[in-house]
Amino acid sequence: MPKTAVITGGAGGMGLATARILGHDHRVVISDVNGQRLDDAVTELKELGVEADGVVCDITDRAAVTALFTRAGESGPVTAVVHTAGVSPQMGSADTIIRINALGTIHVTQAALAVAGEGFALVNVASIAGHMLPGFLIPKRAYKLADVDVERFTQKLVAAASRGPKASRPGSAYSLSKNFVIWYSQRQAAAFGAKGARILSVSPGSFDTAMGRLEEASGAGKLLDHAALKRFGRADEIAELLAFCAGDRPGYLTGTDILCDGGTRAGLTLKGMIAMARGA
Questions:
Q1: Where are the alpha helices (DSSP H) in the chain?
Q2: pTM check: above 0.90
Q3: Which domains does the chain carry?
Q4: Residue 36 and residue 34: Cα distance in Å, rounded?
Q5: Residue 149 has pLDDT above 50, yes or no
Q6: Confidence tier at 164 by pLDDT (50, 70, 90)
Q7: pLDDT at residue 280, rounded to an integer
Q8: 226: which of 30, 119, 243, 251 lies 20 to 30 Å off by Cα?
């Protein structure tokens, strides 16, 4: 049976670029909430010789995520998952962002754990924004609710993101949600390890995707002032990292986050972060 890779958000820039790479030696099942975009992406992959299927999936719905993994496993064992699905501050309210980015990651991670076996890998996409949250603003008590009461967890994170001015709430929700993705991926490492499987997160900086360009004027562009590489990253560059992490070769890589930001965080001082926050 062929190996199967599941890629959420697989019709988007990073997800589709990753599918092109993993499709060299995997059957690829991509998901998205937009059926037309999904059909177009599957057609493109098949034209490249990739064995691909598409499944419409709302990751905020646990039953839909379970159905995605069931469908993916019908033609071969699922050995890799790359979870790129998510939204940015310009794409929704604080509640929407928390539900898609944080609750959605819980659903995908738990569904992945249920099918994980020896050699399996899950790569969750976080963000440089998750690294820029001051420690005193990280609600780790709320994070710990993720495994016991997801609705209360969601309410707590939305409340935490809603403490500031209304205009800043989507940005706060995004940073919180991506910080949670990093934390949760590390927390689940032991559970995956018990099955001989791996889990980690990758945190992109400013990338030249539709979502990245949507955020250009509200922060992604300003980050380049602090970067070592004064340009947006390309979708194929982050896809190479995501596909490598989900593959067989980095077999001892788990329970950590990889920051891929063109040297932005290395050059961003506290003064710079405060200036950016005030500018927003």
A1: 13-22, 35-47, 62-72, 94-97, 104-115, 140-143, 150-161, 169-187, 189-193, 210-214, 220-223, 235-246, 264-267, 270-279
A2: yes
A3: 4-279 (3.40.50.720)
A4: 6
A5: yes
A6: confident
A7: 46
A8: 243
